[in-house]
Design brief:
Strand order of the largest sheet: 3-2-1-4-5-8-9
Helix content: 40-55%
Strand content: 5-15%
Largest sheet: 7 strands, parallel
Shape: globular
Radius of gyration: 22 Å
Number of strands: 15
Organism: Melia azedarach (Chinaberry tree)
Structural class: alpha/beta
Number of helices: 16
Oligomer: single chain
Bound molecules: uridine-5'-diphosphate-xylopyranose
Protein name: Glycosyltransferase
Length: about 475
């Protein structure tokens, strides 16, 4: 193997939107640096794949795709029965992935590295079976990696999880209440996730690199605190190149599950700068009727335009309050899905009411848009804490003691993040982080250097 062009990397992920997006963005970044990248994901993604509009077909400017079966039938509800999906994926997927690697390997075409999603820890074993060095792309905050790592390696740092009043003090993180920890490690949560994370941590010895979708300037202390344990290498933010003010040079199929309604960008063009409240809860979270009613009531009363993503529902039906659409038709737009990065980068957007999935969290940071943090589960609780107490670019929207959300609380947060001295402070800080993100990703920036080092190390292992 003599040049970077010959270096082949295989990336493996399952087909959740929040996992596909960072994998795809890293794939494009590596291709832009001369590597040949294939993404292997489950058959489900093949069905939602939209071919790129441009017809560039050169091997060196595109990401390649391969698909393998997760062992389940087409009509299986993967969103509802996540534990069954993960179990089947491990049993059937590891065999199917191994066969795929064998089929894609020849004497002169070998994979120099496999980069996997952390929630498929069995891929590490498949990589070892084929004698291929393995990296993990940690798709959540480095802070969350730190929490999982310590939870499984240093359990004495964690007080009794059954006691919700206990606080957890971990190096370089703000004090976390137990209810602010990733919900997967709470005893009340499905055991399978626990098993996955235990296997992930147990398998770390076999993983050569942990790459983090973050940047040093954002989580510097956390990254430093892990340096003597199992270091995480920040190579992000993994966002589209235009967000960083760069040209997109690599094409790839879109893997969005829903088609973006681009007309919302024209709608934003008509709104004044820093006026619009953008609301979206990612690709999984579904609001309860109470949450939808309270957000709708606050938006109806707010003296501002809003853009709200309400995905087609899969599980249950919640409805907008009657008369809401009519009453807000002059100031509001509801779409099923949008190009979120384009929306967040639009000058008309003032703030983002978000569930704090890590992609949304990072995208709002990189766009310099202050957030209203309303997390639901898993890592989102930590991300909300980071936005409010560490990055200082957001406010926390809270439920009442009985778990309900009030319209007054939504209104309070909208006001706090858009008007007055606190809003000015949040925006100033958000703009500083936007600038830091761009610097990290530009040539010679901290993340760019880390990516180049990673590539050089892969090159080193090829000879
Ligand atoms: C999941 C988990 O829920 C989350 O906690 C974890 O951090 C990542 O995996 P998800 O809930 O979908 O992700 O949220 P998020 O991480 O924010 O990812 C959603 C992605 O969909 C973002 O990249 C966002 O830009 C994109 N999106 C969302 C759109 O492109 N259009 C939309 O209308 C809404």
């Amino acid at each position: 193997m003599g040049s970077e062009e010959q270096v082949r990397v295989l990336m493996v992920t399952f087909s959740y939107q929040g996992h596909l997006n960072p994998i795809l963005r890293l794939a494009k970044l590596l291709v832009s640096k001369g590597l040949h990248v294939t993404i292997a994901t489950t058959e489900v993604a093949r069905k939602q794949m939209l071919k790129p509009k441009t017809s560039i077909t050169q091997d060196t400017t595109r990401v390649h795709f391969e698909f393998f079966s997760d062992g389940l039938t087409d009509d299986f509800d993967r969103q509802k029965y996540v534990s069954s999906l993960l179990e089947s994926l491990e049993a059937a997927g590891s065999k199917n992935l191994s066969n795929l690697i064998t089929n894609l390997t020849t004497e002169d075409k070998k994979f120099s590295c496999i980069i996997t999603n952390p929630f498929m820890p069995w891929v590490v074993d498949v990589a070892a079976e084929h004698n291929i060095p393995c990296a993990v792309l940690w798709i959540q905050a480095c802070a969350v990696y730190s929490i999982y790592y310590r939870y499984f390696n240093q359990p004495q740092l964690f007080p009794s999880l059954e006691n919700p009043n206990e606080a957890v003090e971990l190096p370089t993180l703000p004090v976390l209440l137990v209810k602010e920890l990733p919900s997967f490690i709470l005893p009340s949560n499905p055991i399978h996730f626990n098993k996955l994370m235990i296997k992930f941590v147990q398998n770390l010895g076999k993983v050569k690199w942990i790459l983090g979708n973050s940047f040093n300037e954002l989580e510097e202390d956390i990254v430093a605190s892990l340096a003597s344990l199992k270091p995480i290498i920040p190579i992000g933010p993994l966002v589209s190149q235009f967000v960083l003010g760069k040209e997109e040079t690599v094409t790839a199929a879109s893997l969005d599950k829903w088609r973006a309604e681009d007309s919302c960008i024209e709608w934003l063009d008509e709104r004044p700068p820093l006026s619009v409240i953008y609301i979206s809860f990612g690709s999984i979270t579904e609001l309860s009727q109470n949450q939808m009613d309270s957000i709708a009531a606050a938006l109806k009363n707010a003296n501002r335009p809003f853009l709200w993503v309400i995905r087609p529902q899969e599980k249950k039906s919640t409805e907008l309050p009657s008369g809401f659409l009519e009453a807000t038709k002059d100031k509001g737009l509801i779409v099923k899905w949008c190009s979120q990065e384009k929306v967040l980068m639009h000058p008309a957007v003032a703030c983002f009411l978000t569930h704090c999935g890590w992609n949304s969290t990072l995208e709002t940071v990189v766009a310099g848009v202050p957030a209203i943090a309303y997390p639901e589960w898993t890592d989102q609780l930590v991300d909300a804490k980071l936005l409010v107490d560490v990055f200082k670019t957001g406010v926390r929207m809270k439920n009442e003691e009985d778990g309900t959300l009030t319209a007054e609380e939504v209104q309070r947060c909208i006001l706090e993040v858009t008007e007055g001295p606190k809003a000015t402070e949040l925006k100033k800080r958000a703009m500083a982080l936007k600038d830091a993100a761009r610097k990290a990703a530009e040539n010679g920036g901290s993340s760019d250097q880390n990516v180049n080092l990673f590539i050089n190390e892969i090159l080193g292992t090829c000879f």
